[in-house]
């Protein structure tokens, strides 16, 4: 589509589509973007990530020619950006701004055809193929049939999709997207990034600033992490989406885990932890029954341990990622009496032991035996929707009845409110509220 | 709501011509439309109707026609400049008055009147009006531009300041003026087309017609400006250059237009608003439609002013305001009701 740029001296093949060197932009002595070097070649989708105020938008605007750098320069296929005429620039770079979704009186089609402006002469009208292309792109972003709708009457997300389509109608080799999915639902976010990925793979270059780190990790071929105007890290997602880098730049504790469903990296922020609690709490779980309690008690600052868990169980994985002390056995193996004996030390040292609600069979019968060692035992009363407490052997049910006689049966919410007040250490009578009986057994 | 553009243009052109024929015919000496058509045909070389008598011919060609043509020119210019300013500032309330054109023009006019220059030649007052208008605009432009960019927000602020300054100077001059000079000035500010001759037309048309045509050339850029300056820039519009050209053209055209008629309010606001409803927001249709509509509106207003209470003439500026403002209000209320009903 776009003719090969005629370069003086440099080979067009060797020069990357976008190349920034020593790019800086300052306002009133504050360096918003500071000596950034970046090269983006055909087929690349580069994600710019970083906290608010890191300079993502400024960098995108510098790269697309919307701002003139105070130092350094941008080259497009080897030609300095500032030497290009406005029209020539617009035939090479399309820019989608973050806050451009205004309520325009124009129809969707009229807005899309604005994207043809740099390709048309002053008195030239849009051709039939221009129209056809606009229709196709509109359908591709999922807005088929929206041609004659007025922009002002669309939702914010729909307007954003139209502006994305307009950038595609511009048919440039380079796309600069500033937060392209900021007001989109996850379905449209996926669509916009899948399309962007396909566009890059088709031999164009895309640079996008992305707030959502998991999205950035999933779709971008390369990430650039900005920290106060400079590049803190750059490379493939696995090299950039790392807690030690993110924690420093974003100033929070993060957890990076591959998603169970897709294998792509998921970034979560570990909640801030209250300090100063010395109470030790042991959690007996399994099948993910301890996940919510673990998270909440961890945040309250309790010193937690967990087990006996089967390896790769979701409880075990969470405990490991939070670096808790975990008693564990191999996946699918039976918890033996030796395992119980080994773990009983931990349970005996804990001020409180919480028995979560999980099904019991031969494999994890040991966990009920372990609960007998508790100094104080709380039995979780499952709410509808929680993991059901089921017993696949009569022995287990009998054991559970015995446990309940000396335990407190509390719902998840009650446990949280009690633990939040810290009553478990000061006031032993606090537990005496609801003595449980066999009626607590379900299943 | 939006009609097809071609019928809209045909309709506007037809009504404009009909209004012009009617306006030439109505007056102290009624002229039948057939005489007007006959003269028009003769001017085109078609001798199909009997020639009107000599008096009628002179009334038509020397008194009525220049006045009607001036009305079309001024109305067309004011409406088009209104559209352009509204597009540029992305605000339906914008008008060339932001650029200090009216305030500067008024200062020029009062200088012409109090210095006695207005009495020397019929053309000196328009010349001084233009000079005042351009001086004010240039000042505002220079104040709002720094390092190669012009801030539209700053233009509004600087425009208010310079307009206030011009207003103060005008009042100061009037304070020392003679009673009849003050009357003459007040009369001028009402805006009027009485006694406009071919001289006025010949003097203004070479500026107004090419100016309006040039503004039509920028329709597509004005459309892109609706995306914001950043959006227009990213699509390849040379934003600063286009902004400068449009501001300068609007100031010159409005300055020349009000030098012919005096300041006439509401044309630049009402006409574009109406036509936006008829042809939509696309400037490629809106600007030509406003050119026709503006001319039509002023011809009709002038006609009304002349025929309400003959032999007295009610000045056209008064008519545009009195017809214009209630009509604009009723339109606004109706659109709001419709929007509320649709929801």
Give the helices and strands, then pairings:
The complex is a heterodimer of chains A (443) and B (343).
Chain A: E1 18-27, E2 30-40, E3 45-49, H1 56-63, E4 71-76, E5 79-80, H2 86-92, E6 93-96, H3 108-114, H4 128-140, H5 156-169, E7 174-178, H6 186-201, E8 205-209, H7 213-219, E9 222-227, E10 230-235, H8 237-240, H9 243-250, E11 254-258, E12 265-269, E13 280-284, H10 291-300, E14 303-310, H11 314-321, E15 325-329, H12 337-349, E16 352-355, H13 365-371, E17 377-381, H14 394-405, E18 407-411, H15 412-421, H16 423-426
Parallel strand pairs in A: 3-8, 3-9, 6-7, 7-8, 13-14, 13-16, 14-15, 16-17, 17-18
Antiparallel strand pairs in A: 1-2, 1-4, 4-5, 9-10, 11-12
Chain B: H1 5-25, H2 33-43, H3 54-89, H4 101-114, H5 117-120, H6 124-144, E1 145-146, E2 149-150, H7 152-175, H8 179-189, H9 198-217, H10 219-225, H11 228-234, H12 239-261, H13 267-279, H14 283-307, H15 316-342
Antiparallel strand pairs in B: 1-2
Quick rundown:
The complex is a heterodimer of chains A (443) and B (343). Chain A is α/β, with parallel strands linked by helices and 443 residues long.
Please tell me about this protein's structure.
The complex is a heterodimer of chains A (443) and B (343). Chain A is an alpha/beta fold. Chain A folds into 2 domains: 18-250, P-loop containing nucleotide triphosphate hydrolases (Rossmann fold, 3-Layer(aba) Sandwich), CATH 3.40.50; 280-440, Rossmann fold. In chain A, 33% of the residues lie in helices and 23% in strands. The model of chain A is unreliable at 1-12 and 424-443 (pLDDT under 50). Chain B has one domain (5-342): Orthogonal Bundle (ABC transporter involved in vitamin B12 uptake, BtuC). Classes of the chains: A alpha/beta (443), B mainly alpha (343).
Main sheet overview of chain A: 6 strands, mixed
Question: DSSP helix count of chain A?
Answer: 16
Fourth-level CATH superfamily of chain B: ABC transporter involved in vitamin B12 uptake, BtuC
Q: Could you list the spans of chain B in which at least 5 consecutive residues all have pLDDT below 50?
A: none
Query: What general outline of chain A do the C-alpha atoms trace?
Result: elongated
What would CATH call the class of the largest domain in chain A?
Alpha Beta
Number of domains of chain A: 2
Q: In the CATH scheme, what's the topology name of chain B?
A: ABC transporter involved in vitamin B12 uptake, BtuC
Oligomer category: heterodimer
What is the CATH-assigned architecture of chain B? Orthogonal Bundle
The total of helices of chain B stands at: 15
Overall form of chain B: globular
Radius of gyration of chain B: 21 Å
Rounded radius of gyration of chain A (Å): 29 Å
What would you say the CATH architecture of the largest domain in chain A is? 3-Layer(aba) Sandwich
Helix content of chain A: 25-40%
Number of strands of chain A: 18
End-to-end CA span of chain A: 67 Å
What separation lies between the terminal Cα atoms of chain B?
17 Å
CATH class of chain B: Mainly Alpha
| Helix content, binned percent of chain B | over 70%
């Amino acid at each position: 589509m776009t003719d090969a740029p005629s370069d003086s001296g440099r080979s067009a093949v060797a020069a990357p589509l976008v190349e920034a060197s020593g790019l800086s932009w300052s306002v009133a002595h504050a360096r918003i973007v500071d000596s950034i070097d970046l090269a983006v070649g055909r087929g690349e989708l580069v994600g710019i990530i970083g906290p608010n105020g890191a300079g993502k938008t400024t960098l995108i605007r510098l790269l697309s020619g919307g701002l003139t750098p105070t130092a350094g320069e941008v080259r497009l296929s080897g030609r300095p950006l500032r030497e290009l005429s406005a029209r020539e620039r617009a035939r090479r770079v399309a820019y989608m701004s973050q806050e451009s979704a205004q309520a325009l009186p124009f129809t969707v089609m009229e807005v899309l055809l604005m994207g043809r402006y740099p390709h048309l002469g002053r008195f030239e009208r849009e051709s039939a193929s221009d129209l056809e292309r606009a229709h196709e792109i509109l359908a591709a972003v999922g807005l088929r049939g929206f041609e004659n709708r007025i922009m002002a009457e669309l939702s914010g997300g729909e307007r954003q999709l139209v502006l994305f389509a307009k950038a595609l109608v511009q048919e440039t080799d380079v796309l600069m997207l500033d937060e392209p999915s900021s007001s989109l639902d996850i379905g449209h976010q996926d669509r916009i990034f899948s399309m962007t990925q396909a566009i890059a793979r088709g031999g164009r270059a895309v640079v996008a600033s992305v707030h959502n780190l998991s999205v950035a990790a999933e779709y971008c071929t390369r990430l650039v992490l900005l920290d106060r105007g400079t590049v803190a890290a750059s490379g493939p997602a696995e090299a950039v989406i790392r807690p030690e880098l993110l924690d420093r730049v974003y100033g929070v504790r993060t957890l990076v885990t591959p998603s169970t469903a897709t294998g792509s990296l998921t970034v979560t922020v570990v909640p801030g932890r209250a300090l100063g609690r010395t109470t030790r709490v042991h959690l007996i779980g399994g099948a993910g029954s301890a996940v919510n309690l673990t998270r909440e008690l961890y945040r309250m600052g309790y010193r937690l341990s967990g087990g006996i868990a089967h390896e790769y169980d979701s409880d075990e994985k969470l405990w490991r990622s939070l670096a808790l002390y975990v008693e564990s056995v191999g996946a699918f193996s039976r918890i033996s009496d030796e395992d119980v004996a080994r773990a009983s030390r931990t349970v005996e040292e804990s001020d409180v032991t919480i028995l979560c609600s999980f099904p019991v069979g031969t494999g994890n019968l040991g966990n009920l035996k372990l609960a007998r060692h508790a100094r104080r035992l709380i039995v979780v009363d499952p709410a509808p929707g929680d993991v059901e407490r089921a017993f696949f052997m009569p022995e287990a049910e009998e054991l559970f009845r015995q446990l309940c006689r000396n335990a407190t049966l509390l719902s998840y919410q009650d446990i949280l409110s009690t633990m939040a007040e810290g009553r478990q250490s000061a006031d032993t009578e606090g537990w005496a509220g609801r003595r449980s009986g066999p009626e607590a057994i379900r299943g | 709501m939006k009609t097809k553009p071609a019928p809209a243009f045909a309709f506007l052109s037809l009504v404009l011509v009909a209004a012009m024929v009617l306006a030439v015919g109505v007056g102290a000496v009624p002229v039948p439309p057939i005489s007007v058509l006959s003269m028009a045909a003769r001017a085109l070389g078609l001798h199909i109707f009997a020639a009107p008598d000599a008096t009628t011919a002179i009334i038509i060609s020397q008194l009525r026609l220049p006045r009607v043509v001036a009305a079309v020119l001024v109305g067309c210019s004011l409406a088009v400049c209104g559209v352009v300013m509204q597009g540029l500032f992305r605000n339906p309330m914008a008008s060339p008055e932001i650029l200090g054109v009216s305030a500067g023009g008024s200062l020029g006019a009062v200088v012409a009147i109090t210095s006695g220059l207005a009495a020397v030649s019929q053309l000196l007052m328009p010349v001084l009006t233009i000079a005042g208008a351009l001086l004010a605009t240039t000042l505002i432009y220079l104040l709002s531009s720094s390092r190669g960019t012009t801030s539209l927000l700053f233009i509004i602020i600087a425009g208010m300041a310079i307009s206030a300054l011009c207003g103060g100077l005008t009042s100061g001059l009037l304070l020392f003026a003679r009673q009849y000079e003050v009357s003459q000035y007040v009369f001028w500010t009402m805006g009027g087309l009485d006694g406009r001759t071919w001289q006025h037309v010949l003097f203004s048309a070479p500026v107004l017609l090419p100016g309006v045509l040039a503004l039509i050339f920028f329709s597509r850029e004005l459309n892109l400006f609706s995306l914001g300056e950043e959006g227009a820039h990213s699509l390849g519009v040379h934003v600063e250059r286009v902004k400068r050209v449009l501001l300068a053209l609007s100031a010159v055209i409005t300055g020349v237009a009000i030098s012919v008629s005096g300041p006439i309010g509401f044309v630049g606001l009402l006409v574009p608003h109406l036509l936006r409803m008829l042809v939509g927001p696309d400037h490629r249709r809106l600007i030509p439609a406003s050119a026709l509509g503006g001319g039509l509106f002023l011809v009709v207003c002038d006609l009304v002013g002349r025929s309400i209470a003959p032999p007295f003439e009610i000045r056209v500026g008064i008519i545009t305001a009195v017809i214009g403002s209630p009509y604009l209000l009723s339109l606004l209320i109706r659109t709001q009701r419709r929007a509320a009903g649709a929801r």
